[in-house]
Write a structure and sequence with these properties.
Distance between the termini: 33 Å
Number of helices: 4
Helix content: 55-70%
Radius of gyration: 15 Å
Order of helices and strands: HHHH
Strand content: under 5%
Structural class: mainly alpha
């Protein structure tokens, strides 16, 4: 339905300028992290699930669903198309959301996302 509205292309990380490094290593990961956290909180609110109980299968389902959406986002928008990177994106999202549920704060998930993106930019291909 929205295919014609916005055109995205894969990012060529070999051509990173300092401003792109700042965006993809700092600003964008923070926005993405806040988005998936807010989506998890919203879904937990909709389905009346406490994010304090990591043993609750309904919360684990919400975390899994949110992580799948995050993986699909990276597949469609970021242009990631290799299975290992997509699986790592899914696992990354699960870990981030569990960090938020365990620590009850956003900073650990934001720092985790920024550090993994910076490492990916620095050492990735």
């Amino acid at each position: 339905a929205f295919n014609g509205l916005v055109k995205f292309s894969a990012v060529d990380f070999s051509q990173l300028t300092p401003i792109k490094y700042y965006l993809f290593g700092g600003l964008i990961p923070i926005v993405e992290t806040l988005t998936i956290i807010n989506l998890m909180i919203f879904l937990a609110w909709i389905f009346d699930v406490s994010i304090n109980d990591l043993k609750n299968p309904r919360l684990l389902s919400i975390i899994t669903f949110t992580s799948v959406l995050f993986m699909i986002f990276h597949l469609k928008v970021r242009g990631i198309n290799n299975n290992i990177d997509l699986i790592m994106t899914f696992i990354f999202s699960v870990v981030s959301l569990i960090l938020v549920a365990k620590t009850k704060e956003l900073e650990s998930a934001n720092e985790f996302h920024v550090s993994t993106n910076v490492l990916a930019l620095r050492f990735g291909q």
